[in-house]
Amino acid sequence: MSDTTLDRATETQEQLRDFVALLKPRVMSLVVFSGLAGLLVAPGSLHPFLAAVAVLCIAVAAGGAGAINMWYDRDIDAVMSRTRARPIVQGRVAPEEALAFGVVLSLFSVMVMGLALNWVAAGLLALANLFYVFVYTVWLKRRTPQNIVIGGAAGAFPPMIGWAAVTGSVSIESLLLFALIFFWTPPHFWALALYRSGDYARAGVPMLPVVAGEGATKRQILLYSLVLLPLAPAPALLGTAGIVYGATALVLGLLFLAGALAVLRAPSGADTDRAAKRLFAFSILYLFLLFALLIVDRGEGLIGGLGLA
Ligand code: HEM
Ligand SMILES: CC(C)=CCC/C(C)=C/CC/C(C)=C/COP(=O)(O)OP(=O)(O)O
Known about the structure:
Belongs to the UbiA prenyltransferase family. Protoheme IX farnesyltransferase subfamily. By secondary structure, the protein is an all-alpha fold. Helices cover 78% and strands 0% of the residues.
């Protein structure tokens, strides 16, 4: 192979990597997993191919919204150390190209969901996508410290979308899964914001630790952890999951609460940063485990949900 062919291959690979980065793939992993859980625990069955299409649509719509978010936020992303290396900021992807990429993916995923599954799931998918772009990114992120409480609802839709892909409807059970992520998001994000508050202050983004201070943020984290404690086991009461899920969710909730208390008690500075980093990491593990348990504890739902029964 000649040097120019090799150069071109490397360039294509790097471009591909940049476009994948626009989709925020790491955050997407949990979005997709929670969507899959919603799909698997829903009553009814779906052909495995259609189940795969539905999950792929959730991933692509979330990725499309992520690309549009990166286009809109390119000014503040350039100021924050965590986001400085992103492709648009580094000039490796043109802003208009990222925007077009995000819009096309968003439209495509909603259309495919509607045509292949049903229009309730497609409508919810569009709502989640629009909520992240317009309500969170454009409207609230730069205006109020409640940005992630309200705007964070976008990320709570995936299990409801998975559920609707199977059933064509919204139900009390899928609303409960929505509520679970909705109340999980503030402690998840504010833990990170505590040790990244310098970044947000520099960028002029009014995240809670910047606007209300460290103490108020820690108390809010504790409050939401208290709400999660009875909420997470609740699917066991509705029959969406079994007793194994319910008991483990309670234990996980107690561990979450212990993490929030450790953050509250930690003195300002390095100790707070350390406790907040641990809580942030645990928040991700917590949600992954909850949804994994939900799937496992509904073994017969899993088999039925994929039409394998
Ligand atoms: C408005 C709501 C949310 C905000 C503001 C937020 C913010 C963030 C931020 C800033 C990070 C760090 C990413 C990085 O290091 O580049 C992060 C990580 C993460 N978030 Fe969230 N998040 C939100 C909701 C969610 C939701 C709903 C999910 C999934 C259900 C989620 C899943 C994750 C995961 C899996 C990571 C770890 C990614 C990694 O390994 O870096 N987040 N989040
Ligand atoms: C269609 C669909 C299912 C959408 C779900 C969208 C989704 C993943 C929402 C979660 C919200 C999120 C990742 C916020 C990141 O905040 P930020 O954008 O302020 O983070 P940043 O500072 O890293 O850019």
